[in-house]
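User: Last request for today: this protein with T5A, please.
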Amino acid sequence: MRNQKAQFITLEGVEGAGKSTQKDALCELLDVNGIRYIETREPGGTPYAENIRALLLGSSDEAPQAKTELLLMFAARAQHLETKILPALKRDIWVVCDRFTDATYAYQGGGRGIPRGWIQTLEKLVQGERVPDLTLFFDVPVEIGLDRADRRGNLDRIESEDIEFFERVRRTYQEIATRDPGRVITLDATVNIERLTQEMISRLMGRWGLKCRPG
Ligand code: T5A
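Assistant: Here's the final one, the structure of the complex with T5A:
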């Protein structure tokens, strides 16, 4: 474990999958193991990128075109990666990030129908070879996720899309997980919060050789 390089970890899933809830549990696991980390999110994560987030998720009279949305996601990512994520990793600090480029493949690619090749081109431009070391994909049927998000309230512009949009998003996430099983751990997010946390923690402890679990 001591020789483990700082990890770039991302959490993904449709709305209401439970990412934010499980991010807290993951951070607790890192805390009890004495691992230094930062928590962050996309779109956003720095003041400048958070301004772009507000543009992306807020409602206005003029909705962004799919290409505009795509480019803004990567604009925010470029800022976030260069000024926050990469400097942390360089200082041997782990990064726990709520969503990253898989979300662009899922939402702008699967959801909006933007060709995968365009996203790959932007990914290369913005990230070079940098991809997350580990991605936790919280897989939940769209109706369950949306119902949870709905009960939480305040749906943003993207959360207000129709169910077919989110079905395509979920399918794209599943395809990514199938294509890249070494990086992506799929977790059944239909179970209750405590069981999901247990499952996640046991998978992570095995992977990183951690000794202590929270609680
Ligand atoms: N986006 C993002 C793109 O389109 N392209 C991109 O490239 C990127 C990076 C960002 C939006 O931007 C889009 C995707 C998104 O639409 P966000 O800030 O990540 O949005 O917010 P959401 O994903 O919408 O976050 P949510 O809060 O809706 O989902 P979470 O974090 O998955 O869910 P969480 O943990 O907040 O839980 C929601 C509710 O469910 C309960 C919780 O208590 C909470 O009330 N819950 C459970 N209930 C039962 N069983 C469980 N296992 C539960 N887990 C949580």
